[in-house]
Each structure stands twice: as structure tokens, then as C-alpha cells.
Design brief:
With 318 residues, the protein is α/β, with parallel strands linked by helices. It is built from eight helices and 18 strands. It binds zinc ion (ZN) (2 copies).
Length: 318
């Protein structure tokens, strides 16, 4: 099979011929139909999140067909958990210290085939074509977990308007929340896209929103946004950090945190998040906007993501 392989930090992914993997006990062999690209893939490429045992096939938003039975499933970032630790036994498997992650510790979906732990393969709602379903599996799932951490917040700020934010804007509106979209300065395309999706307001991250926010989610990997988001939320508000990696958070006055404001991160996902979100998405209904790339253009998709050259999500179709 053909696969895009990570070999070392700072080197582009390489197109290689690999043997088709074989499913072990409890695993499914999947013919990959689509695989979403995620900012985490850039962090892996750049070494900000490390791959312990390269070479590795990246990609953790996989839509595939199980062979030979023909069932369509999706595979997310969390690819294996121990099932025995305190976290696994208390519905917090997202924090399992022995967890293995798809496209980091386990070969992922930027290939024609992959194998996945059946416990972490989820049925994809019928309404979605393969490529449209792929962004639901990380942007959607982890975005949904971050939204849950915002409780009943009505005015919701989203810092970084990429794949996750474009999905969450739709979910938030279905829940009668108002979305305030913050982009990089001058990114009028992303601001227009946010308004098109129904955001109540869109501007750049240095701007104050027209109302105090009840909660904010920071998707962009820039620690200074945490401080800006804290200054935009009302007393009692929460700022959720939705990414796996972020630059350092600058120091800020205690008064920005005072008033029972909360800063927290959201890590990975649980199977419950996946089941809930994949049931919710077609009811909203969430429509994903994506640009598709052939397998050998995975590196280009990643560089386009870095440069902000598309709105919504990017998906590899091998
Ligand atoms: Zn991801
Ligand atoms: Zn565990």
C-alpha cells in the first residue's frame, strides 16, 4: 500500500510503499476512505508533540471500511487505553497514562489501509459522505468535549476559527448559544466564514467583543490568547484550552482570574464523547466544509493548514 510516513522532526512526510498491515486480536483492518488533517499533525511534524518510535504513519481522523465485513467506521486520536487504571475505571480513559494515540503511537490513516482497536472504532452516521465525516473525528469530537466544559455558557468565544470552531459554531447555535469568533488579525476570510455560519460577531483576537463572554475556547496554539480570553469572559466564566500544545502563557494580573474565572485544558476524548457527538452531529445537522487532497499531497495540506490557506478542514482522500 502507499503511505505518507513521518521519519524525523523537521523532515517532510515521505510517500512510501508499505505492506498492508494485519489486524491482530481485537483489531479491525480498515481500507481508508478519508483522513482528516489536524493541527496536532503539525505539532508532531515540528516535534512539539513527540513521536517516540518513528517511522510513523500520521493521521487520526480516519473514515474507513472494515474488511472483509464492509462496515464503515471512524477512528479518532485516542486509539488504545489500558482499561485497568484508575482513570480507565472512572470514565476518564482520556487521561489513561498508558494511552496510545492514533498517528503518534499507532500508525494512522494517511495510507491506503490501517488497523485500529475495535473498541475505538465508531459507527459513522449515514448522512455523511466519507470525506465530510472525517473532520467530525477530532475537530468535532474534541471540540464537543471542550464545549461541554463550558457548561451552560450562552455567549461563547472561539479563539482560532479553524476546523473545530466551524463545527462548534453550528452545534452552539443549535443549543441557542451565541458565538463570538476571534481570528488572526486581517484574516477577513475566516471572519466572513464565521459570520456565514451564523456567528453573532467576528473580529481579531486583539479586539474586545461587544459583550462579555460567558465562556471561551482557545483552539489556536498561542498562549497569549488565554490571557486575552480571560479578559473577555465575565466573572464565573471559563476559558478552555482545546489544543494539545500551546506556546507559554504570559504572566497576567490576578485580577484577570479573580471573580471565580476558570482556566482549564481539555485532553483527548472518551468513547462516550464519541458516541454522543456522532449521534448529535446529524441532528444539528453539522455540515463540514473541507478541502480534499490526494494522499501524496498530505504535506501540502499540512503546510496550507499552517499558513491558513483554507477555511474549515482539510481531508486526505487516498
Ligand atoms: Zn486532532
Ligand atoms: Zn488506563
Amino acid at each position: 500500500m502507499r503511505a505518507m510516513v513521518f521519519e524525523a522532526v523537521g523532515q517532510p512526510l515521505r510517500l512510501l510503499e508499505r505492506p498492508v498491515p494485519r489486524a491482530g486480536p481485537g483489531q479491525l483492518l480498515l481500507k481508508v476512505r478519508a483522513c482528516g488533517v489536524c493541527r496536532t499533525d503539525l505539532h508532531l511534524l515540528d516535534g512539539e508533540v513527540s513521536i517516540e518510535h518513528p517511522p510513523r504513519i500520521l493521521g487520526h481522523q480516519i473514515v474507513g471500511i472494515a474488511e472483509p465485513e464492509g462496515r464503515r467506521v471512524g477512528v479518532p486520536w485516542l486509539g488504545w487505553t489500558c482499561g485497568e487504571c484508575e482513570y480507565c475505571r472512572s470514565e476518564r480513559e482520556n487521561l489513561c497514562p498508558r494511552a496510545r494515540f492514533t498517528g503518534r503511537d499507532i500508525d494512522g490513516g494517511m495510507a491506503q489501509y490501517t488497523v485500529a482497536d475495535e473498541r475505538y472504532c465508531f459507527a459513522i452516521p449515514d448522512d455523511y459522505p466519507d470525506a465530510q465525516a472525517a473532520p467530525l473525528l477530532c475537530a468535532g469530537l474534541i471540540g464537543y468535549r471542550a464545549l461541554r466544559m463550558c457548561g451552560t455558557a450562552r455567549r461563547l468565544g472561539l479563539y482560532g476559527f479553524g476546523a473545530a470552531a466551524h463545527i462548534l459554531t453550528q452545534v452552539a447555535q443549535a443549543q441557542d448559544r451565541e458565538v463570538y469568533a476571534f481570528t488572526r488579525e486581517g484574516d477577513s476570510a475566516a471572519q466572513a466564514f464565521a459570520r456565514e455560519l451564523g456567528a453573532a460577531w467576528a473580529g481579531h483576537s486583539g479586539q474586545a467583543p461587544p459583550h462579555e463572554l460567558d465562556a471561551a475556547i482557545v483552539f489556536a496554539p498561542d498562549g497569549s490568547l488565554v490571557v486575552q480570553a480571560l479578559q473577555a469572559v465575565a466573572p464565573g466564566g471559563t476559558v478552555v484550552c482545546g489544543g494539545i500544545h500551546m506556546s507559554d502563557i504570559p504572566t497576567f494580573p490576578y485580577s484577570s482570574l479573580w471573580g471565580e474565572r476558570v482556566v482549564r485544558s481539555v485532553a483527548n476524548l472518551t468513547r462516550r464523547d464519541a458516541e454522543e457527538f456522532l449521534a448529535l452531529a446529524p441532528r444539528v445537522p453539522v455540515r463540514t466544509h473541507m478541502s480534499s487532497y490526494p494522499l501524496e499531497a498530505a504535506g501540502q495540506a499540512l503546510e496550507d493548514l499552517r499558513a491558513g490557506r483554507f477555511t474549515g478542514a482539510a481531508v486526505i482522500v487516498p
